[in-house]
User: Which sequence fits this backbone?
């Protein structure tokens, strides 16, 4: 468990992180006066306790109440959770989010690795191409989502529909067609995300010793053998990091569905076709001020992300570690 | 070399799909720039013009705007009173710089203590900080919103500045870097009479500058783009950050497609500072993105 936690974020190789705290040779330092060091720790601890630890625990408490932001919270036991698991909108949000997460993580990983292998070189041209794919990671955010909203306009002055019409196809209401909603979210997220993944893979590829490829070439390994036997296994830590952080990040998706699909009456687009867990949390918590119920949504999100992270770590565990 | 695994043929024809992919990455930016300079009649023309026919600045400011005339649009700068659109920039810059600087000072102090000092409970503190990184931060927004409300911080800068200051990831990352600083160096400074604060500020921090720079980019990028939290705690224009203002503007697009011109003008202006920043600090940007995936 201790190592799992560490590898979640550092993950490159477990060996690079020393726990230090429990080991080393600090014995001669124990007697030193700790007042000043502890004072230096205080600002962080206070902020961390007030804005991270307390909220996490408080939201667990609120999830067992009917708090509505006005009257005092009343303890209702697991009522919110019971209601949640019978709530069709929750299942809609969960399904949409799951589909979104799987598509985005797979596409970002595959495209990111492909781009890193194609444009990973040192030449100026490769550097320019990497900058192009990396651009959305830098100049992205809300500004570019507004542009996407404009590009995806349903009417015939939307550029995508103009392209369709040149090919003799009827215009599509891109953001108003329920069957397309999650696909649109995936397109925008992969458009913005593959460049960042590419950069991570470029760093991962550069860390692989050239000698391995040279030795393999001497032994007569084909390029595809080199890829499957050397590149991919050695990229495992990078891959694990990308899948875990990508999964956590994609589960929290809010900006894209909120901005592209949010309307006056609904946050989830037509028929909740683009409703995700966090937009649902927002809708319940801040649209209707059902803060107890929204806290239950938040904790379900937390538990799902937690379990998925553990599964990822287990699956990503190198074979030799499993036997230890 | 990275290209070790690719076949020579990949250089020419096989690369073509990836150049097309690159064009689709660039297209929204092109569309943003060209739409920003299209006059009202042209921006809602079907089919749209790929090249701007009559470039204009009316999307930014329309000198002929008259609320009584129906086929006119209000320029971006005319939409806001007071310091106007520039105010959102100032708010965003202020919040981003403040949160980045203060959170890194706080995190590096904590990181130094946890990396180089052992005390009862230090291990538990360390593990709690690491464990907290697994928590989706949305779990905290409802209680934090209530705290802001109870403190009377809604629609103030405090709500934008204070709750974001505890960056567990920064502490974790800096601990790893600070562990690399030699104990002998620190002990030597101590023998020379340097206090803990001075060791942290004058010896440790300069030595972990690359890690601090990467972390600064990582944190500031997140703050600059933060949308959900300002959306919850700010309802006015005076304290709105750039993402919040853009989000509200984009909402107007659903009601009136003619608003597209000023909105594209706004997104263009909002993208320029990030682009300049990226060109200036490209290497740190890459380091900021790769933070955590490789050893610190």
Assistant:
């Amino acid at each position: 468990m201790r190592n799992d936690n560490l590898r979640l974020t550092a993950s490159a190789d477990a060996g690079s992180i020393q726990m230090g705290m429990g080991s080393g040779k600090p014995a001669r330092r124990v007697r030193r006066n700790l007042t000043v060091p502890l004072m230096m720790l205080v600002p962080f601890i206070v902020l961390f306790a007030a804005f991270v630890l307390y909220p996490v625990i408080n939201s667990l408490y609120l999830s067992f109440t009917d708090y509505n932001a006005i009257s005092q919270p009343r303890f209702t036991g697991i009522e919110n959770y019971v209601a949640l698991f019978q709530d069709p909108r929750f299942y809609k949000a969960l399904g949409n989010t799951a589909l979104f997460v799987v598509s985005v993580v797979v596409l970002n990983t595959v495209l990111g690795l492909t781009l890193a292998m194609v444009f990973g070189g040192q030449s100026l041209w490769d550097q320019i191409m990497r900058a192009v794919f990396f651009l959305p990671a830098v100049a992205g955010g809300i500004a570019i989502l507004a542009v996407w909203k404009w590009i995806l306009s349903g009417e015939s002055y939307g550029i995508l529909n103009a392209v369709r019409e040149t090919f003799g196809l009827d215009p599509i209401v891109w953001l108003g067609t329920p069957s397309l909603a999650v696909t649109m979210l995936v397109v925008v997220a992969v458009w913005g995300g593959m460049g960042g993944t590419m950069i991570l893979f470029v760093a991962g590829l550069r860390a692989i010793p050239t000698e391995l490829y040279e030795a393999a070439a001497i032994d007569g390994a084909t390029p595809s053998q080199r890829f499957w036997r050397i590149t991919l296994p050695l990229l495992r830590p990078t891959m694990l990091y990308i899948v875990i952080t990508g999964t956590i990040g994609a589960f929290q998706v809010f900006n894209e569905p909120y901005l592209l699909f949010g309307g006056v009456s609904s946050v989830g687009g037509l028929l909740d076709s683009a409703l995700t867990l966090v937009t649902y949390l927002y809708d319940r918590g801040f649209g209707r001020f059902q803060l107890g119920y929204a806290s239950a949504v938040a904790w379900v999100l937390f538990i799902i992300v937690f379990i998925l992270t553990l599964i990822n770590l287990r699956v990503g565990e190198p074979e030799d570690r499993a036997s230890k | 070399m990275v290209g070790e695994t690719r076949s020579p043929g990949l250089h020419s024809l096989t690369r073509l799909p990836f150049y097309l992919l690159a064009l689709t990455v660039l297209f929204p930016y092109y569309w943003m720039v060209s739409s920003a300079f299209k006059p009202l009649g042209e921006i809602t023309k079907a089919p749209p013009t790929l090249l701007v026919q009559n470039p204009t600045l009316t999307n930014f400011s329309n000198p002929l705007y008259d609320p009584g005339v129906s086929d006119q649009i209000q320029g971006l700068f005319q939409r806001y009173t007071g310091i106007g659109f520039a105010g959102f920039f100032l708010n965003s810059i202020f919040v981003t710089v403040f949160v980045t600087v203060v959170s890194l000072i706080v995190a590096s102090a904590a990181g130094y203590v946890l990396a180089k000092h052992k005390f009862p409970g230090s291990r538990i503190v360390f593990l709690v900080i690491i464990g907290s990184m697994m928590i989706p931060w949305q779990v905290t927004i409802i209680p934090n919103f209530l705290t802001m409300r109870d403190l009377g911080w809604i629609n103030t800068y405090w709500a934008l500045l204070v709750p974001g200051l505890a960056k567990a990831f920064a502490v974790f990352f800096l601990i790893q870097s600070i562990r690399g600083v030699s104990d002998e160096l620190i002990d030597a400074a101590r023998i020379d009479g340097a206090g803990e604060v001075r060791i942290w500020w004058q010896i440790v921090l300069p030595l972990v500058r690359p890690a601090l720079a990467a972390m600064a980019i990582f944190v500031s990028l997140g703050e600059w783009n933060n949308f959900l939290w300002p959306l919850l705690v700010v309802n006015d224009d005076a304290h709105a950050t750039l993402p919040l203002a853009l989000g509200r503007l984009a909402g107007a697009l659903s009601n009136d497609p003619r608003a597209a011109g000023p909105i594209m003008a706004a997104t263009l202006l909002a993208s320029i500072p990030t682009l300049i920043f990226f060109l200036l600090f490209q290497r740190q940007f890459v380091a900021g993105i790769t933070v955590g995936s490789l050893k610190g």
